[in-house]
Amino acid sequence: MAEAQMLKVALVRCPPPNWPLPLQNRDWTGIKIDISQTIEVSLRLMREAKDAGVTLITFPELWFPGFPKWREQNDWKKTHLASYIENSLEIGSREWNTLIDGIKSVGIWAAVAFSERSANHIYMAQALISKDGEVVMHRRKLRPSGSERDMFSDGTVDQLKVVNTPLGRVGMLQCGEHFYPSMNFIMAAQRPKLHIGAWPFAMDFGDDSDSIFYNASLVTRGAGSYALNSGAYVLMPSIGYCFIYDPMMRIVAAMDNTVDYQEHPILYHTLDGSELHGTQDHDPNAQASWAVLQQLNDAFPVTIPREQGSLVPRREKSVQYLTSAEMRWSEIAPGTPWPEHLAQ
Fold first, then answer.
1. What is the DSSP secondary structure assignment for residue 194, as one 8-state letter?
2. Helices 216-230 and 181-188: crossing angle, nearest 10°?
3. pLDDT of the residue at 329
4. Where are the domains of the chain?
5. In the predicted model, is pLDDT for residue 337 greater than 70?
6. Which of 25, 58, 76, 327 could form a disulfide with 111 if both were Cys (CB 3.0 to 4.6 A apart)?
7. Among all residues, which ones are annotated catalytic?
8. Looking at residue 159, what is its pLDDT?
9. How far apart are CA 68 and CA 144, in angstroms?
């Protein structure tokens, strides 16, 4: 049974509680990570959205308990990393069940993005949870970007799935996954109608006060290309600048950093729900299709050696390693130079 024909969605754009503001603030002094408080605030936002007539609410990348921004500059391995692991959500835990029970109580669909603790590792995870508390989709970022991979373990390719739901044919990706063919091609080939992205935070167009990876000019390019190739509406919740693309790569709703986060913590928009449903799980004539995949394989230059390299093999980082003296940051985002005391 499909939800209402007109689908009102909500994109959260405010930070979790206690997170440093403004966005370019890199000072983590005195900041305390608290997953319970984060869940409490998320449920308040869900109630606000429900009262506004929303069916689906979406959260930025790792909103639970928050994206570890400027972790390298603040030497998180000494200051916040152990607390971050402790405050990561474990499916089935008391905190997780509090979130699920809250979603059921509000009666709203929620796309949550969270740091997931599972056994001896943490992952960059997403879950689509129905208004009845059912986990309709759960996935982990296939390959965390840059120094994210120093903290978070890799996901697996079997979680690159698009599923039919009462909301429509839905897929999910996070942040840099929207740029890379090993992730976005497989998802686009499955012909989603509604795509839930998740970006951690984004500065406005032309704001060069931080890394280009946090600038709207870059964020929108990845999402727009994916919208065009997949044929899906793309919801991109993000702290700061957030937006929605239609399948023709047009921004149909957006809110930038000139709008106060506290006064307007949510971007609202209504979609035509009739456009979000369909049974087509592939299109042999699409740019993302089996035939195109074969063409890519056939066209791969014979001059390039068939080497495995070090990027693709799955990496895992144990909690013991993350909290040990051996833990090291491998890199830092361009445009954010190392402080003198961390220079390597």
1. E
2. 40
3. 87
4. 7-305
5. no
6. 58
7. 61, 141, 175
8. 97
9. 13
Cα–Cα distances in angstroms (integers) from residue 97 to residues 109, 134, 312, in the given order = 15, 11, 34
Amino acid (1-letter code) at residue 224? G
Q: Quote the Cα angle for 253-257-262, to 5°.
A: 95
Query: Lowest mean pLDDT: which of 1-5, 124-128, 161-165, 253-257?
Result: 1-5
Sequence-ordered list of residues with C-beta below 8 angstroms from that of 277, at least 6 positions apart, any chain:
2, 164, 168, 169, 193
DSSP H or E segment with residue 118 = strand 109-118
Listed in sequence order, the residues at least 6 apart from 269 whose beta carbon sits closer than 8 Å to its beta carbon are 8, 9, 11, 244, 252, 253
For the full predicted model, state whether its pTM sits above 0.85. Answer: yes
User: What are the residue ranges of helices labelled H in 248-342?
Assistant: 290-299, 319-322
What contacts 274, CB < 8 A, 6 or more positions away?
5
| Cα Rg of the chain (Å, integer) | 20
- Residues 289-332 have pLDDT tens digits of 999 999 999 999 999 999 999 999 999 999 999 999 999 888 76
Query: How confident is the model over 136-150, as pLDDT tens digits?
Result: 999 999 999 988 999
Measure the CA–CA gap between 250 and 8, rounded to whole angstroms. Answer: 18
What is the rounded CA–CA span in Å between residue 234 and residue 109? Answer: 17
**Domain 7-305: which CATH number of 3.90.228.20, 2.40.440.10, 3.90.1030.10, 3.60.110.10:** 3.60.110.10
